[in-house]
Write a structure and sequence with these properties.
5-stranded antiparallel beta sheet, 24% helix
Length: 926
């Protein structure tokens, strides 16, 4: 179900430290769920019980082609000891003590809004509710995650429901993860990982007109395992079909030839990818989660977009555009391949880059699209637009996105931006805990209804109404206009066909937009080109005089003419060596000086795909590629350095060891360092004894870095691969270093070593704010000093900044657009003055003992708290039935005095660095 990616114990990052825009208390992440995940043992805090964490985890087809189902080739990786998988709670426990639906006094809503608890679900006989919809008579239909359906007539304003008001639906169906009422019937996405009924798309209807839903039809079986399976059912804008939302553990059914997604899946790792250190999804290959367009009879599945991790729901705006909320992988926290939960604009043929383990594609890769808004750690569940709500216009137009683990209902505000949208978010409803599963706007009373539940935790049904002074008159309903969006949509009409038949004029129409500055237009054009017969455009791609156009066209050509080795099957054609040579030659001829940085990255990534799909070129072409790429290293862009170091290491460039070690030495964040270390792990050329020693010394340093649950294992994988490249003589010469054990220190001790021996100054807000406001206070600042202070103070440990950093504190990337220097300093000097709701901790009293932490997992009657932000594994498990009192903590875990060992100039450099968004060209550094 949606709420499981959902419900695992989050794997936290280390200690929170500096600059929290609202000082986070004991931040945590959520948890995902997967069949292969294995929780690690953790030391039990004091005498409290050990935290037991639970990991959740056909109709005839016309004109269909079978989606490639390549089996993963065995990946050798160090195997950890097998962990016994914890049992899921088998029942919902009694509603006593703190084991109840979250009371409204622990729920906070946006100003002017009121939240009512209208029904506390008796879980022992009505289960744990996860899905919600409205039928044609305005009645609510809700689903129990492990049971059936219930029907409810919403109570009058101010009234609540009784047990007798909740009517069981007689239909013999269970495990509904998505529901929509359409054409007089209820369409359901079933994902039953208990396998008591088939997962897939169902229709439930009234067989005899007695107003009882009793007829159940399986329209199409869809094979899925664990909870990352079949989820929401969403009507398409034309009302003629449904979008079926599926996660990355769903086996694709036969996919229609006219699908916008080009079915040329690839892992496309130039260096071998590392599987998850805990076994999570090991061996699972692309395409990941897919959104399908499905006919109402379930007979035809068109793949609209792929590469998701575990999407649970989606929503369509007035412009007819589709949006979804994708899950992160919290085990990856603080690794370079970690991607936060994010709002994705789902365009035709889109690919969002999920791959197992360390193979997830970063947003700058040309062969995947980025999200439009990073949310942060979480467990995505329901989504809906506010259309029809009796709310102020701003909230009528908002996209609502739900997060189970952090207990957040976000209002996402979209703004047209070229062919896509930009977005901002605000916390609309929050609670601790508030395992929110689904939300709808009722077309009758204009209220929002939402449910909490899942994983057999206590459920509740809530209503949100506006009681403020602003007008709730219906907002403007006219779709927005955008010429760029229309261009993208026109290109999307050229998608489909899988290269079997050319659409009239499609190649010329697509060609004119391959170098467009708008990434979404560029994507639509390249995808349209990939769907045309390759013979009609391959020569043009290999010889086009415009380097930007050629780069994008060669990316398309590499994808459709080469096969990723991990996706080869027994009947796959042999590698086209001639095409591989021609692609390599055409790439080497591109004048990189005529391209901007993003276009150069397209070339670098295309080189990687060509080398992966067509194999190592001969010596001449290898040397030509090295000669082309080596002068580009180092780049001012860490993204370009990522691609260049990885590619040059694979090509065994004689210079890359020294160049990459210099980059690693200077990298401010552990993610960037880790990426260079990963890229060098199989390199054999160009090492000197000094460089080798420095490289292996880095692993001793990295032992004190912190990250998600798989972080240490990934470091181990990198080191093991690096040791395997050493000759016996080298191993003997480095025996002492290789045997040395790291000196373990706390995160703060390690990161703060730069301040050793310094005197402490108790800086006040007034004196620092005065210094910042002085005429030269934030002028001619030292960028590199600010960057150094940001890293040394541990900010990256907890805060996202650009594409690096942790997720246990607020994202600081756009701090400069929201905060003045005074406000930012106030947050640091007085961390408990205003605590960001997203990172609020709770204080729980049990048997007279007080536990303070962030709720990181719920399962049945159990609640797990992370009690030490500096240690993701420091947790306590609490029986909610025994809770005597629970309240939101008023104290931030971020300590005071974090600036006290910095010099005033360093503090100002740091503030300038944060407010500039890490932009060295900002006027504050001139």
């Amino acid at each position: 179900m949606k709420l499981i990616r959902h419900f695992l114990p989050p794997a936290f990052l280390l200690a929170a430290f500096l600059i929290t825009l609202a000082a986070l208390p004991l931040a945590h992440s959520h948890q995902t769920s997967q069949q292969s995940a294995r929780p690690e043992k953790q030391a039990a805090p004091s005498a409290r019980p050990r935290a037991r964490l639970v990991l959740q985890q056909s109709a005839p087809q016309a004109k269909a082609i079978k989606a490639p189902q390549a089996k993963a080739k065995a990946q050798k990786a160090p195997q950890g000891k097998a962990k016994q998988r914890p049992r899921r709670s088998a029942t919902v426990g009694p509603a006593i003590g703190g084991n109840k639906a979250t009371p409204v006094d622990r729920i906070k809503a946006a100003p002017g809004f009121q939240v009512e608890l209208i029904y506390s679900v008796p879980g022992e006989d009505q289960g744990s509710w996860v899905n919600l919809c409205v039928d044609d008579r305005g009645r609510l239909i809700v689903s129990d995650q492990f049971g059936g359906l219930y029907r409810i007539t919403p109570p009058a304003a101010g009234a609540t429901l009784t047990h007798d008001d909740v009517e069981p639906v007689p239909a013999q169906i269970r495990a509904a993860n998505g529901m929509v009422w359409s054409n007089g019937a209820l369409y359901i996405g079933v994902n039953d990982y208990e396998q008591k009924i088939d997962s897939g798309l169902y229709r439930v209807s009234d067989s005899n007109g007695d107003d009882k839903l009793d007829k159940v039809e399986l329209l199409h079986k869809v094979q899925s395992r664990s909870d990352h399976g079949v989820h929401a059912v969403v009507p398409t804008p034309d009302g003629e079909a449904f979008y079926l939302i599926t996660g990355n553990n769903t086996t694709p059914p036969d996919i229609e030839v006219n699908s916008p997604v080009r079915l040329v899946w690839g892992e496309d790792h130039l260096l071998p990818s590392m599987p998850d250190g805990r076994g999570h999804n090991r061996g699972v290959l692309a395409p990941g989660g897919i959104i399908y367009r499905v006919t109402p009879d379930g007979s035809k599945f068109e793949a609209i977009a792929s590469g998701f991790r575990n999407i649970f729901d989606a929503a369509v705006n007035r412009d007819g555009e589709l949006f979804t909320y994708d899950a992160d992988m919290e085990y990856d926290f603080n690794t370079p391949w970690y991607r936060p939960t994010r709002i994705c604009h789902v365009t035709g043929g889109a690919e969002f880059g999920w791959r197992n383990g360390a193979g997830k594609r970063p947003v700058f890769y040309a062969d995947n699209l980025p999200g439009i808004l990073d949310i942060g750690p979480g467990s995505p569940t329901g989504m809906t637009f506010g259309y029809g709500a009796k709310f102020p216009a701003k909230y009528q137009n908002a996209l609502y996105a739900l997060d189970w683990s952090w207990g957040k209902l976000y209002a996402v505000h979209l703004k047209p931006d070229g062919a896509s949208y930009s977005a901002t978010k605000e916390e609309f409803v929050t609670g601790a805990p508030l395992p929110i599963t689904d939300a709808i706007i009722h077309p009758g009373d204009g209220a929002m209804y939402f449910t909490i539940g899942g994983r057999r935790v206590q459920s509740g049904l809530y209503r949100v109404t506006y009681v403020g002074d602003e007008s709730t008159a219906p907002a403007e309903t006219t779709p927005s206009k955008s010429s760029a969006r229309e261009t993208r949509r026109a290109l999307e009409t050229l998608q489909g066909g899988q290269g079997t038949q050319e659409k009239p004029g499609a190649v010329d129409k697509a060609w004119g937009h391959l170098a467009d500055s708008d990434r979404f237009i560029r994507w639509a054009a390249r995808t349209a080109l990939e769907h045309q017969p390759v013979a009609s455009w391959s020569e043009r791609a290999l010889t086009d005089a415009n380097p930007a156009t050629r780069a994008e066209a060669l990316l398309a050509l590499a994808r459709v003419t080469g096969i990723c080795p991990q996706h080869r099957k027994d009947d796959s054609p042999p590698v086209d060596q001639q095409m591989g040579r021609r692609l390599t030659e055409a790439l080497a001829e591109i004048d990189l000086d005529k391209l901007n940085e993003q276009q150069r990255q397209t070339v670098y990534r295309t080189v990687q795909i060509v080398l992966n799909r067509f194999g190592r070129p001969d010596q001449q072409f290898s040397e030509a590629l090295v000669a082309q790429l080596d002068p580009r290293l180092p780049s001012s862009s860490p993204d370009s350095n990522w691609l260049l170091v990885e590619t040059l290491a694979w090509l065994e460039s004689p210079n890359v060891a020294a160049e990459a070690m210099e980059l690693l030495r200077a990298a401010p964040a552990q993610e960037e360092q880790m990426q260079y270390a990963r890229s060098l792990r199989m390199l054999k050329s160009g090492w000197t004894p000094a460089l080798r020693n420095e490289y292996f010394e880095w692993f001793l340093t990295a032992a004190n870095y912190r990250g998600g649950a798989s972080f240490e294992r990934f470091i181990e994988f990198i080191r093991n691969d690096a040791v395997a490249t050493l000759s016996e003589d080298e191993k003997q010469a480095m025996a002492e270093l290789l045997a040395r054990k790291p000196e373990r220190t706390s995160a703060l001790e390690h990161l703060g070593k730069i301040f050793d021996g310094r005197e402490s100054t108790k800086w006040t807000l007034d004196e620092l704010s005065t210094a910042a406001r002085a005429a030269d206070g934030l002028r001619a600042r030292d960028f590199h000093s600010g960057q150094k202070m940001f890293a040394a103070a541990g900010c990256y440990a907890c805060h996202r900044f650009g594409n690096q950093g942790g997720m246990t504190g607020p994202d600081l990337t756009s701090a400069g657009r929201r905060y003045s220097a005074h406000d930012l300093l106030d947050q640091i000097v007085n961390p408990s003055k205003v605590i960001n709701d997203q990172f609020s901790a709770v204080r729980v009293v049990v048997d007279g003992q007080i536990h303070t932490g962030v709720v990181v997992n719920l399962n049945g009657d159990s609640m797990t708290l992370n009690t030490d932000l500096a240690d993701p594994n420091q947790r306590v498990n609490i029986d909610r039935k025994e809770i005597e009192r629970m309240e939101v903590s008023k104290v931030s875990p971020m300590p005071e005095g974090l600036l006290n060992r910095m010099k005033q100039a360093e503090i100002l450099d740091l503030i300038a660095y944060v407010l500039s968004g890490g932009d060295e060209a900002n006027e504050m550094f001139r």
